[in-house]
Amino acid sequence: MKIQKFLIISICLFTTFQSFAQNDTKKMDKFIKKLMKQMTIEEKIGQLNLVTPGDGILTGSVVSKGVEENIEKGNVGGLFGIHGPEKIRKAQNLAMKSRLKIPLLFGSDVIHGYETTFPIPFGTSFSWDLNLIEKSARIAAQEASANGINWTFSPMVDIARDPRWGRVAETAGEDAYLGSQIAKAMVRGYQGDDLSKNNTILSCVKHFALYGAAEAGRDYNTTDMSKIKMYQDYLPPYKAAIDAGAGSVMSSFNDIDGVPATGNKWLLNNLLRDQWGFNGFVVSDYTAVNEMISHGLGDLQTVSALALNAGLDMDMVGEGFLTTLKKSLSEGKVSEKQIDAACRRILEAKYKLGLFDDPFRYIDEKRPANEILTEENRRFARNIAAQSCVLLKNKNNLLPLTAPLKISLTGPLANDKSNMLGTWAVTGDPQKSVTIYDGIRNLLGSNSRMIYTKGCNISDDSLFAKHVNVFGTRIEIDKRSNEEMLKETDDVSRSADAIVAILGEASEMSGESASRSNLDFPASQIRLLKSLKKTGMPLVVVVIAGRPIILDEVMEIADALIFTGHLGTEAGGAIADVLFGNYNPSGKLTMTFPRNVGQIPIYYNRKNTGRPQSGVEFEKFKSNYLDVANSPFLPFGYGLSYTNFEYGDIQLDKPILNDNEPITASITIQNTGRFNGNEVVQMYIRDYVGSVSRPLKELKGFQKVFLKQGEKKTITFKISKEDLKFYNSNLDYVAEEGDFKLMIGTNSDSLKEINFSYKPKQ
Ligand code: NOJ
Question: In terms of Cα–Cα distance, which of 451, 454, 448 is closest to 580?
Fold first, then answer.
């Protein structure tokens, strides 16, 4: 005990250093070595156990038993699902009663904000704004740490190309390049430059790996793909997060090449640790160790040994490690060395967080009142939410609306706090969110009028509603008949200057275990739209959803259309800002929107195939459908503005790229419309000929630029050899000599083009 105290004091002296330097590593090694010498095998295994007591935030179907007793016995390495400094202090006090007083990690699903909730990650990705996204993670870390949390299960960086999958809502969309930039920004935001500061938290990259490629978009389903596709399109964002210094990784539920990620040695050891050099710890997803029994890999003891041997360090909730590893050790199925390695990695994370210096570092009952849900954080939430809105249509420049006017506000999401935050807002309070009704009312002057009517239910299907409403009512089926609701809205709308309809998905229609096989717009809402159309009044539609949905009818009926993800605490103010022009929308879609479910998977960086269609019409013996076009309904990167941006031609400073000097491409963009605005300028490259078939285009750069009305700016992109690299058949990451097409423009389908060549110097 005395040694422990001495060590604790000596560590105080250097945890104030700004970053974790080599010197720190040496001291950490020494400290952990000494500590581990004192640990029994039970205590080491205890560190590998992550529990959730279940009296707070429930994010799975199993809760841990005997938590308090286990903490005191040294059987617990970390806790998640508890809320507030009082409970966290109580748990840490229990850990301080254990023999070696090893502090606990306190985890939480801080996914898109903590109590101040930002748009769902799918939504914030529409901003294409890395500074904003990083700041959102910074604020989330500040708030979470003020409440005692030191570890977040974020960022989720899974690539999503199938909108049927509900967890699209938690992703940054379909593209590996954009996803990688966002992953890095999130890690920087959470972890800052010094993990031991009391306002930075450990991040956990998830779900490693390929979780987004679940077959048929059904959550937790099998994944199966070629290694080239894996390396090229799915793995980069995980790698980017790790390169940015993420301290932990969460293994995914799915299997890869037949072996569940949680027990996949190739994935966790060869790729993650050996090839990528990851030196943090890997935690399983919720009961994922136990789930390998259902995957058909053996009994609990077998799968637990499999996971440890594969490189998994911490077992979330399932207690397979806790209850079987000692037996496996005695039977020679795992080695003490492996248990030590896992234990060491977890202790290192605690050390880096400064918890051995002060186990109560993150626990301060005075912080929440000053740091959580502050006015400043709310202002930021409103700003990022406005920047996450995508304008899809604006007939006759109906938007922005100008007051004074009489508005008929309608739709089941227009005045509904319970659906503003979106999925995975487990620490946000829906009651503290601003509805669209309140947001518009607060913005409108007293000489404007607004009447709200619900208009219809999110869905009329009571069984569907029951499935969605597991954690509380999100789809409320009105007692009134559809006819009554429609009539009420119709009466109000006929005398209005403009109708604003707020439609879409309830928050839990996306998220975990919320896959949909049918992405049609709910029939109840289409009925409302058709009835609104009959009034002949200008019709503005805002669609809030957690995934791409089929928008053809809505696009046809609406005069103006905005699409966005669930926007969080300040949803109402943000929508009002966009509708009334306080913010000129600049969001761009980060997933391709299909025309129908049959086109899925559909993504912009597709390959040409050997039989590409020559135009848009059906051609026999070409790669197309009899009943639908190949093109998507809306392309990746799409989004309009209240103003217009005109692109000039691309100029290159030289036509040939050598190894050392990048090509500089420049393009002039002019704001020729009526408003100031931001434009996300996108840069794509096509490799015409390769040793393997290459996509028609790949995003390689983007810039968000602000242009005043009438202003002209020249934007430059540097193209280097790195931008041309891809994985060849040997999985080498190479740039091959040859001809390329450079494309720059406003979305992946509307681009200026120029050719260049790459010739390495001999
Ligand atoms: C299961 C989810 O897949 C994961 O994303 C989450 O972090 C854990 N549950 C903990 O809540």
Answer: 448
pTM of the model: 0.96
Ligand 1 center to 550 CA (angstroms): 28
Topology (CATH) of 645-758: Immunoglobulin-like (2.60.40)
pLDDT band for position 6 (cuts 50, 70, 90) = very low
**Which of 109, 156, 190 to mutate to test ligand 1, by most ligand atoms within 8 A of the CB atom?**
109
Query: How far away, in angstroms, is 698 Cα from ligand 1 center?
Result: 31
In the prediction, which pLDDT does 19 show? 60
Residue pair 460/523 in contact (Cβ under 8 Å)? The answer is yes
pLDDT single digits (tens) 260-313? 999 999 999 999 999 999 999 999 999 999 999 999 999 999 999 999 999 999
Other residues' Cβ atoms within 10 Å of the Cβ of residue 10: 13
Give the integer Cα–Cα distance in Å for 730 and 720: 23
The enclosing H or E element of 462 equals: helix 462-468
Task: For Cα atoms 545, 548, 553, give the angle at the middle one, nearest 5 degrees.
Answer: 90
> Strand order in 248-251's β-sheet?
281-283, 248-251, 202-208, 151-152, 105-108, 78-80, 49-51, 315-316
Report the 3 state secondary structure along 309-371. Answer: HHCCCEEECCCHHHHHHHHHHHCCCCCHHHHHHHHHHHHHHHHHCCCCCCCCCCCCCCHHHHH
Which residues are catalytically annotated?
Answer: 285
**pLDDT tens by residue, 150-166:** 999 999 999 999 999 99
Q: Report the C-alpha gap between 618 and 613 in whole angstroms.
A: 8
Buried b (16+ CB within 10 A) or exposed e, 259-295: bbbbbbeebbbebbbeeeebebbbbbbbbbbbbbeeb
Eight-class DSSP state of 673: S
Domain at 379-589: CATH code: 3.40.50.1700
Of the CA atoms within 13 Å of residue 449, those in its CB half-sphere come to 8
Output the residue whose Cα is nearest ligand 1's atom 7.
153
Where are the domains positioned within the chain?
A: 379-589, 645-758
Determine contact, residues 623/613, Cβ cutoff 8 Å: yes
